[in-house]
Write a structure and sequence with these properties.
Rossmann fold, 7 strands, seven-stranded mixed beta sheet, single chain, alpha/beta, 8 helices
Amino acid sequence: MSGSRLSTVEEKRHALLQLRLRRKREEVVAQREERSREPQATVSPLVPLRPAGARPPLFLVHAVGGSVAPYVGLAGLLGDDQPVYALEDPGLNGGAVEARGLPAIAAAYLAAVREAQPDGPLHLGGWSGGGAIALEMARQDGDVAVVLVIDTAFPAEPIHPDDDQLRTWFATDMAGMGAELGEAEWAKRFPVFAANVRAFLGHRPSPVDTRVVLLCTEDSPSEYLDRWRAHAAAIHVVPGNHYTMFQSPHIEALAEALRDRLSEVNVR
């Protein structure tokens, strides 16, 4: 195949992938709007991204921003036989935004997960701060096959940022994800971000008796990797940075790495 024709094929493939991702994001937004109309007490964090499939479901916990949007495209690349659920912060959907520790967040999410999968070992994962929540969920539950930690960097010591620092971090985080927020959206999402960051930075992870796999990016600092060696059975490097790993073409490599790690667990 000539170079020009190959380029055209790749462009069409990329355009088709972007179309599928956009449609899936629109579905998730519609689900979020419907859930936001529910009474606060009934808002569930669980979002089914791909509920069908023969394999054990994978539950992915949101990052500190609270949204499951980064997982929408990823779920579609993990295979037709892989069910995927995500956990979104209820504060984005009409639920109360509470100042609580990370173990309390993990306990609430674990209860929702066990409603969806009452029996059998869980397959958990999470990006950024979501990896720390997933790890704590595994510690609390005990019956977990694997925790897939996606580029989670926890500090050497607890950090207590002030509001100005949190606003700066929030703006940086939104820019990294390409999100442009109006005043109303900022007012809704910043308190969720601030509460999650405080919970994450005030938490020290404990070792868990299950398989933990870290998927980190090419630019991960060595001190961050060193802290994970006490927790992770394996460390795998994927292309991109903390944000572009969820964008094409890097998201395909991330999906492949996750599929491989899940397959390793399923054949044990």
